[in-house]
Amino acid sequence: MLVRDVDSTVGTPRHIRGKGWDSKRLVVAADGVCFSLHDTTVEEGTQMELQYRHHVEANYCFGGEGEVVDLASGERFKLRPGSVYVLDKHDRHLVRAVKGDLRLVCVFTPALAGEETHTADGGYEPIRAVPDSPAED
């Protein structure tokens, strides 16, 4: 069983910050499950263009108001507490925090290592497999 709280991640390598956002990675690849779970805050007024080419991401909004925009279609979706959106086709998208800080629970598969920050194209690199140890004779 794995039990962890948000406060225990603050100030550790699992607490990642960028311009206008903050992510506390509660469950990561090293925990041995097939997903990672993050408590993410997008500050009011922040807009981020993102695309996760190597991951599927599900997001559950539990605070603030915002929107997610599908950049392929231009379609806009309002986000408020109780909303969920899933980037199941590696969708290029915008996330905007409109009223208050947008608070999200984010689930990534495959799991993130936990210390990643966004690449220039707004995504994360895949985790590189660790080579097996050489067999002993």
From TrEMBL:
Give its E.C. classification number.
4.2.1.108
Single annotated GO MF: ectoine synthase activity
Instruction: Check the record and name the InterPro entries matching this protein.
Output: Ectoine_synth, RmlC-like_jellyroll, RmlC_Cupin_sf
Q: Which reaction does it catalyse?
A: (2S)-4-acetamido-2-aminobutanoate = L-ectoine + H2O
Which residue ranges traverse the bilayer? none
Q: Which UniProt keywords apply?
A: Lyase
GO BP annotations of the record are: ectoine biosynthetic process
User: Which Gene3D superfamilies does this one have?
Assistant: Jelly Rolls (2.60.120.10)
* Pathway(s) annotated for this protein in UniProt: Amine and polyamine biosynthesis; ectoine biosynthesis; L-ectoine from L-aspartate 4-semialdehyde: step 3/3
What the protein does comes down to: Catalyzes the circularization of gamma-N-acetyl-alpha,gamma-diaminobutyric acid (ADABA) to ectoine (1,4,5,6-tetrahydro-2-methyl-4-pyrimidine carboxylic acid), which is an excellent osmoprotectant.
Regarding protein family, the annotation reads:
Belongs to the ectoine synthase family.
Q: What is this protein called?
A: L-ectoine synthase
Question: What organism is recorded for this protein?
Answer: Paraburkholderia phytofirmans (strain DSM 17436 / LMG 22146 / PsJN) (Burkholderia phytofirmans)
Q: Which gene encodes it?
A: ectC
